[in-house]
Design a protein that fits this description.
Blueprint (H helix, E strand, L loop, with lengths): L1 H25 L4 H22 L20 H17 L2 H29 L3 H7 L19 H6 L3 H22 L1
Helix pairs in contact: 1-4, 2-3, 2-7, 3-4
């Protein structure tokens, strides 16, 4: 499984771009599906933004901010984004593809990253015992735990998630307008 995790980590971004092309081709948006989809995408972007502004990758074990509720708020945000785009597309094939990608690519990557954290940070075991892997608790693991940092947000280039989302929403809107006439 360790070798698949390495492969999954390497192919997840190129696979995402390839899937975006397939996504756009298969998408059959309506105004309603697009509006509902965007309403779901926005919280996903907010989750990713908050998570990226807290995490100090490989330096400290981040347990504050959204990491006090789930160990993987970036992936949870991505999952919410994907759900929003699945709604916007109105295609069961797309939704099924997203589920397959999440299970085959992202779950192994999450496990691999958590193994790395377990080896690097001795306190990870306690944190993992108290905070769920993906679906968040309603009560925070700790009080406080670091402030949001725009510097970290920019360092992690999380603005790319916003740019990509805006571009895809615009493309879906253009497709909707083009084919509705």
């Amino acid at each position: 499984m360790a070798s698949w995790s390495r492969i999954a980590r390497r192919i997840r971004v190129p696979l995402g771009f390839a899937f975006a092309v397939l996504y756009f081709w298969l998408a059959k948006p309506t105004l309603t599906s697009l509006l509902i989809g965007v309403a779901v995408v926005i919280p996903g972007i907010v989750m990713r933004t908050l998570a990226s502004g807290h995490v100090q990758k490989n330096e400290i074990l981040t347990t504050g901010g959204p990491y006090a509720y789930t160990r993987n708020p970036l992936y949870l945000g991505s999952l919410v984004l994907a759900a929003g785009f699945a709604v916007a597309a109105r295609s069961w094939w797309i939704a099924a593809g997203m589920v397959v990608i999440f299970l085959a690519i992202y779950l192994p990557v999450i496990r691999s990253e958590e193994n790395f954290l377990r080896e690097r940070f001795p306190e990870f075991a306690d944190y993992a015992a108290r905070v769920p892997r993906l679906l968040p608790h309603l009560v925070a693991f700790r009080n406080g735990g670091g402030e949001f940092s725009w510097e970290l947000y920019r360092k992690h280039r999380e603005y790319n998630a916003i740019i990509g989302s805006v571009v895809m929403v615009a493309a879906l809107a253009a497709k909707l307008l083009w084919f509705s006439n």
